[in-house]
Amino acid sequence: MSGRFSKLEPQVPSIVEAASSKPENPAAPGEPVRDAAFYFARAVEAMHDGKHESALQLYTRCLKEDRARIPAWVGQLQMLLELREDLEARLWSEKALEVFKGNGELLACRAQASLRVGDPASAMAQSDQSLAAPGSSPLRWIARGEVLMPGRSNVAAECFAKAKAEETADWYVPLRIARVYLRHDQPGPASEYAKQATSLSPSSAYAWITLAECHDRLGSRDRAAECFRHALQLAPQRRELKDRIDECERRGDSFLLSLWRRFRS
Amino acid sequence: MRCINCEFFNLPGSARCARCDSPLDLSGISIEPPRRGQALMPSFGRLAVRSSVATRSARESIRSVLREESIGEVDWRAVRRSVIPGLGQRYMGHRKFGAAITIAWACALTLAILFMGDGFGTFYAAVTLGIHSLALSLITADAMRRTSLVQRVGIGLFSYAVLLFGIYVPLRWVIYGFVHPIHVEAVPLSRHAPFEQDDVLLLRGRWMSGDIQRGDVIAVEIHEGIFGPGMIIRGGAYIDRVLGVPGDVVMFAEGVLSVNGRPLEPDQMPLGSLPTLNPFVTPVPEGHYFLLPTTFRASGAQATIATILSSPAVTLPSNQRVLGEVLYRWRPFSRMGPVTSAQTPTERAP
């Protein structure tokens, strides 16, 4: 096992090691084949659970098996962005684009990273290239919406609507949009998209956690605590949610903060 | 060999795709992404990337602002009309709002003029400028909607600076070249001086000093200091009537003040009442004027001409120290009006 895997957080090894144990051995009867597709599926699962660090490791493991798997590169970049390592994401997207020149999804990731490191002009240009590239995906429209968000929020909302209307869109698309809004400190619209995500996938703890974060940022801490409780029921192993619930209950609703956040949103 | 990027079939053994130049052999490519905590990139390298991103961002922002994205959509006719705030809004169809802006600006400007020369004047001048800047910003607001908050703030500050240094400061400089407002401070250890605590408007002294005649009321710049026993003067302006011009001989004898041997008429006398003075004869040198600052008092005793004359900065001011001819008094408003050379001593405050 490489050095970076030995420094993982306590809950991470269980996922990654379980996924990557005996990688060289052929699968035992009844066990799945541990190939790129296997790691990719596990990475997507981890991403949908909101375990970004684990997802990043699994995407990397997937690339180790198959470097040509572009969605894994995209997944790595998305996880870096979720982990707020924007500069690293930008560097990594440049690296990926050296290999996969003009790939629409990678360009979309680069546009997001450029925007988040404070380069909106480059972000806009990269988003243009992303949309001009062959094919279409929700991610490109999400990136477009994010790039347009600072100055033209109504156009951004239209882009997000297009992202949701894409054929490949699933429940994770509204959740990803909600995360984008949260990232830009707009919990009002974020909560709307998070609600959509919870209605599309009521069994997703991550969607409920995101909705709880939206309520928390809006100052509605009672609702936030309720959502956290729901998430805890769905994922009892996530003990850190108890602390979040306690914190929300201790702080209580903040009327002024709630009013101000709603006014801003 | 098939390119994984563009799916182009390349010749066997090619290192890169002939169509998209992507590498065909990916085995040597690193798949470990850089992480924040890892020293994959030296700190100075990160700093360099950040600075280059910031520089490029700033450059692009300026370009986009100056090019097609925002300025191109500004209605320049409305901007030109905004020399008077509110006219631009009226031109764009917001008649009532434009009128409100114009009225607010005019009120602030009037107050700034009325309180010219003191702190309130500065405050109202800032309000005037703020209203003007706001009116201009609102015209460009629609075009600026695409730009980021930082850009909008930058443009707002830029328009504020353009208004300040392009219109208001030059205008003030030109106006102050002709007329100059001053506030006359109280003089400690003195009787009530003429125009003390008043705001007056001066004809600019440096330009008009050649025209100063005997009997004119002028303002003289005085510096802080002690002029003889008990005569402590705070810096500021002193206003009095010119008794003698260069070449004159001013004489005081037997209670009569005369110039060149002829007694002064009542409308040529100093603004203050004459104290008991010892006789004196003073020739007025070239480039100076003679004032008799009758309001100063010595500590514990009447002023003597020796005491007064020991402060030539006050009695014989040079051309350079003349601030100007007093033209108009506008505060207190109860005594607002033009100041003429025929100003009588009876107008003085008690």
Alpha-carbon distance between the two ends of chain B:
108 Å
Shape, principal axes of CA atoms of chain B: elongated
Q: How many individual β-strands of chain A?
A: 0
The helix count of chain B comes to: 9
Kindly list the characteristics that best describe this protein.
heterodimer, A: about 260 residues, mainly alpha, 16 helices, about 75% helix, globular, B: about 350 residues, alpha+beta, six-stranded antiparallel sheet, four-stranded antiparallel sheet, 9 helices, about 15% strand, elongated
Concise summary:
The complex is a heterodimer of chains A (265) and B (350). In chain A, helix 5 packs parallel to helix 7 (104-116), helix 7 packs parallel to helix 9 (138-148) and helix 13 runs antiparallel to helix 14 (221-234).
Protein model, in words:
The complex is a heterodimer of chains A (265) and B (350). Chain A contains 16 helices and no strands. By secondary structure, chain A is mainly α. Chain A starts with a helix and ends with a helix. Chain B is of the alpha+beta class. Chain B has helices at 43-66, 76-81, 87-91, 95-114, 119-144, 149-178, 205-208, 305-309, 312-315, and strands at 179-183, 199-204, 217-222, 225-226, 232-233, 236-241, 249-253, 256-259, 262-263, 280-283, 322-331, 337-338. In chain B, strands 1, 2, 3, 6, 11 and 12 form a six-stranded antiparallel sheet that branches. Chain B is elongated and about 125 Å long. Chain B starts with 42 loop residues before the first helix and ends in a 12-residue tail after the last strand. The chains are: A mainly alpha (265), B alpha+beta (350).
